[in-house]
Amino acid sequence: MNGDGVFNIYKPAGMTSFQCANRVRKITGAKKAGHAGTLDPNAEGVLPVCVNKGTRCMDFFLDMGKSYRGTMAFGSATDTMDAWGTVTKTKEGFTVTEEEFVKVLESFKGETEQLPPQFSAVKKDGVPLYKLARQGVFTELEKRKIAIYDIKEEKFDGKTAQIYVKCSKGTYIRTLINDIGEKLGCLAHMTSLTRLSYGFLESKDALTLEDLQKAKDDGTLEEKLIPIDLITSRYPKIELTKQEYRDFKDGKEVAVQKDRAILSETCDMSAANLYLEGELKAVAKAQSRGQKIAFKPWKFFGEGPEEKEMKVFRSNEEFKYEGQTAIGLGNFDGVHEGHSSLIKRLVSEAEDAKIPSMIYTFKTHPARVLQKANEMKLIMTEEQKLSCFEKKGVDMVYLEDFTPKYASQSPEEFIEQILVEKLHGKIIVVGSDYTFGKNRAGTPEKLKEYAEKTGHFKVCVVDLVKIDGIVVSSTEIRKVIARGDMEKYERYTGRKYSLSGKVTTGREIGRTIGFPTANIIPDASFALPPAGVYCTFSKVNGRKYKSITNIGTNPTFGETRLTVETHLLDFDGDLYGKNIEVTFCSMIRGEIKFETSEELKKQIQHDVETARRM
User: Fold this and answer.
1) Is position 395 annotated as part of the catalytic site?
2) Of the residues 68, 86, 187, 537, which has the fewest C-beta atoms closer than 10 A?
3) What per-residue confidence (pLDDT) applies to 307?
C-alpha cells in the first residue's frame, strides 16, 4: 500500500510492540512501519502503528494521554513489578478493606513524580534499562513528572483488584500498582494490563491483526488508515504561498498574520499544520509574535513546491533549452544569506514571468584561476551548492568553465554572447557588487545601460545583506569558519556547517580506548574550523545520530596528519567505506595534548556528556 497515516491496532498479549508493527508492515505491504507508545509483551490493547510517511508522526503521540485497565494481586512484590518477574518480597496475614483501597487510589490523583521500573525501555546512556537489568546492572534512576487524571476501582475482593487509570505520558502502571501496594502496607504486583485508549484512538475501534488481514483481502485497507491530517488536527491549519514554503523548507523562520490560521476551539498553538495548494506539507513549531505566528521546521510530509527536479548543465552541448530564462549571476560560494536574497528574487521574478529560473555560475572559483590563489579556501562542495539551489526552487543551473580565455572577454561580449544568444536571458538578477568581463569592468550599471538600449532583458539589482551591521560575504564566512564560530556561520548562511566524505581506515586509537571514530580525510582546498572538539550530529544511511567530532592531528599520539574524527553516540556498527555527513553545532573545546591515553579517555567521556546535554 502507498497510503500514509496510522492504523489503530489491538496488540495481543505475548507479542512485542516491535513484532506487532512488523506484522502490520508485512500484511499491508507498507515500505515503513513503526509504533508509538511501547506496550510490554504481556500487555494488550491500543497500539498506534504508523506507516510510510505516517512514521514521521510518531512524535505527535508523545504528549497524548492514555487510559488503562490493570489487575493486581496483593501480598507480594516482584523485581519487574508484574506477575512475570521473580518474587522479591511477600506479606502474610494482611487485611485490606475496599474502603482503604478506594481511599489510597484517590491519593494518587493529580501531578506527581514516579520512578520508572528497572525493567523498562527507558534508556541510560543509550542502553535500555531492561538490557542492563538482565545483566544484573541496576541503575540509579531519576523520578519523572507524571499526572494521574483519573483512577478508580472496578473490582475488589481483598486479595485482588482491578482498576481504571487515565494518565499522562511516561506513566508506568506497573510502578503505580507497586506504589499502591506499598501505601496499603500489603505489597502488590500487576497481573494483567490493557491499554484502553491512546489520545483519540480507542480500543473499541482498534483492529486486530486478523481484522487487518481481512481488510487487505477485501481491498479496504485504505479505508482503515487514519490520515496524517487527523493525527495532527489539534494544531491550526495555515495555507502557505510557494515562496513561503520554499523559505520554510530551506530552514528559515517564516511568519504570517494570525488571521490566516484556521483554528478550532481546542487548538494547540505550539505548532501548526502547513499546507501548500491544499496538501499538508509539514508540521512546524509555532510561536506567537504579536499579530503574527512564526514557524520553524519540525516534520515534513512533502518535498519542495511543485516537487520537480533541477536540471544541471555542464557544457554548451548539454544545454538544449530554447525558451527565455531568468538568470541569476554570481559565484555563490557558501550560498549565504546575501545569495539567498538574490535567489529568492530570481525565483519570484521567474514565476511571475512564467519562465524557468537559472543560476549561471562556475565549476572553478575565478580567484583560483586568475590569481592562482590555491590558498583561498572554498566554503562548500559543488554537490552542496547544487543541493542548496534545488532546495530554494531553482529550475536550472549552468556550470561554466572559467578559463583565462573566458576571462578575457569584454563585458559587452559576455552580455551578447552568453546572456542573450546562449542563455536567452529575459530577466537578469545580480547583487549590487556584481562585476564581470575583462578586468571586472562589467557592473550592474552596464547591464542596465544595455537593457535600456536594446530592450533584450530586464535587470534586477539586489542589495547586499547585513547582519549586525556586517555585510554578509563569502570572505566574511571564511573568517567565521576559521574562528570556529558555528553559531554565526548558521546566522550568515541559514544552515549549519557540514562536512561529508567516505569513512577511511585510521589507526583505530579511538576504538582501543572505548570511543571508536569514523574518520574523514578533509580536502585541503576547503575551509575547516580550527582544531578542537565539536558537538555535532552525523547522518549515516539516512539516519541521524548525536556525535562529537575532533578536528586535529592527535597530538597525544604524536600524529601529524590532519583528520576529522567523529564518534557517534548510541551507534553500534561498522562504518568503514560508508558515506557520512557531519553537521557542526558548536565548539566544545580546543585541541589538547594529554600525557596519557587514560587522561584522554576521561576527557572524551566528559565531551560526550557535554554533547548529550547540548
Assistant:
1) no
2) 86
3) 53
| Closest of 92, 74, 87 to residue 184, by C-alpha | 74
Closest C-alpha to 545, from 612, 601, 494, 590: 612
Q: Is the pLDDT of residue 458 over 70?
A: yes
As a whole-number percent, the residues of the chain with pLDDT over 90 amount to: 51
* Assigned C-alpha cell, 384: 552542496
Measured distance CA(171)–CA(332) in Å, rounded: 52
Q: Mean pLDDT score of the chain, rounded to an integer? A: 87
- In this prediction, residue 361 has a pLDDT band, given cuts at 50, 70 and 90, of very high
C-alpha distances out from residue 605 to 244, 326, 534, 548, 602, Å: 43, 53, 13, 10, 5
Which residues face 360 on adjacent strands?
A: 329, 398
3-class DSSP assignment, residue 592 = coil
Give CA angle at 614 (582, 540), nearest 5°: 25
| pLDDT category of residue 278 using cuts at 50, 70 and 90 | confident
Residue 81: closest CA among 194, 193, 198, 161: 193
Identify which has the larger pLDDT, 304 or 68: 68
Nearest to 114 by CA among 139, 141, 96: 141
For 5, phi then psi, to 5°, come to 160, -150
What is the average pLDDT across 173-185? 95
Q: Is 334 left (phi over 0), alpha (psi -120 to 50) or beta?
A: left
Closest CA to 249 of 355, 388, 148: 388
Most confident of 233-237, 366-370, 513-517: 233-237
Q: Which residues pair with 188 in a beta bridge?
A: 74
* Strands (E) located in 52-117: 66-74, 76-78, 87-90, 110-114
Q: E strand or H helix at 534, and its extent? A: strand 532-540
Beta bridge partners of 524: none
Q: What are phi and psi of 372, to 5 degrees?
A: 50, 35
SS (H, E, C) 35-58: ECCCCCCCCEEEEEEEEHHHHHHH
| Per-residue pLDDT tens digits for 189-225 | 999 999 999 999 999 999 999 999 999 999 999 999 9
Record the cell numbers describing residue 280, joined without a space. Answer: 499538508
Residue in the structure block whose three cell numbers are 495481543? 12
CA distance 600 to 604: 6
